[in-house]
Design goal:
Layout: E1 16-19, H1 31-42, H2 50-54, H3 61-69, H4 72-82, H5 88-106, H6 116-125, E2 129-134, H7 138-150, E3 159-160, H8 172-181, E4 189-193, H9 196-204, E5 208-212, H10 223-228, H11 231-248, E6 252-254, H12 261-272
Parallel strand pairs: 1-2, 1-4, 2-3, 4-5, 5-6
Helix pairs in contact: 1-5, 3-5, 5-7
């Protein structure tokens, strides 16, 4: 096999995709994680909204907890209840409880999102390798992975935040995917995710990035809730999400992961002409 040497531009095809899990490949609406964060804080008599819980989605779960504790309103509520803001020991306690509850919750949020299983099979027929990254840790993935596999979804590589020195937006999970998939260079890979930190992770790894709007954390609605929205209202929300992804630097924006095939064809053409994902 010829090995690409970085003394020229890569002009070969896309070799692999790296998908996020909740909201991108499974768990329509990214419902499971958000509910857990709300419940964990409620156990400490601190009320947080689903919007606040979703603000840091995509990060490693301990980083997510730390981010929520740093929100001015949450920090003030904590100080009012306990006499001081949340400290490191509090964050650790919240994270430990989150880990326990997340493992219990994931069994109810393992269904592949509409169209994901067939599009993954189509990508494999195209010769692509399927990787994945997630803010979940190993204990959580030990529950989620076999359940998703029973329902037809199983990537070739599975990397979680506890497998690497730091989670998103650091690129380490994408690099680990490249190693496990034996894929190089990074511009031959595409990162697909439903959070801003997914986009940042892919950018930092030197990959093409695709943001998912309808089925993920940014919209944050179940399939049924999405269908119940008036079309004009749904479109208004999706347009706002698309704007945030564009501002974050996403190369492409789709409503569903199932719609990825034309994007991959377009990236192939860009690579063939010598275009790289790096912006600026």
């Amino acid at each position: 096999m010829d090995i690409f040497i970085r003394n020229k531009k890569y002009t070969g095809p896309v070799q692999a995709v790296v998908l996020d899990w909740a909201g991108t490949a499974v768990d329509y609406g990214c419902i499971g994680p958000a509910a857990v964060f709300v419940d964990v804080f409620a156990q400490k008599d601190i009320e947080v909204s689903h919007e606040e819980a979703r603000k840091f989605m995509g990060l490693a779960k301990k980083d997510h907890i730390q981010g929520m504790c740093g929100l001015p309103r949450v920090a003030e509520a904590w100080k009012k209840r306990y006499g001081q803001g949340p400290e490191e020991a509090d964050i650790e306690e919240l994270y430990e409880q989150t880990a326990v509850m997340m493992v219990q919750t994931l069994s109810h949020h393992s269904d592949p999102i509409d169209g994901v299983v067939p599009v993954v099979e189509e990508m494999r027929k195209m010769g692509l390798k399927i990787g994945s990254s997630t803010g979940y840790v190993k204990e959580m993935m030990d529950v989620l992975v076999p359940l998703a596999k029973e329902k037809g979804y199983h990537p070739d590589a599975i990397v979680c935040s506890s497998d690497v020195p730091a989670g998103r937006p650091y690129p380490w999970m994408c690099y680990a995917n490249a190693i496990r998939l034996e894929t190089y260079p990074m511009e031959a890979m595409v990162k697909i995710g439903d959070t801003l930190t997914d986009i940042e992770e892919g950018q930092n790894a030197g990959m093409w990035t695709v943001g998912i709007t309808r089925t993920g954390n940014e919209l944050g609605l179940t399939r049924e809730e999405t269908r119940a929205l008036e079309p004009a209202e749904l479109n208004r929300r999706l347009v706002k999400i698309e704007a945030r992804f564009k501002q974050a630097g996403a190369h492409y924006i789709l409503e569903r992961t199932a719609d990825i095939l034309p994007v991959l064809e377009e990236i192939d053409l860009k690579l063939k002409s010598g275009e790289l994902p790096l912006k600026g």
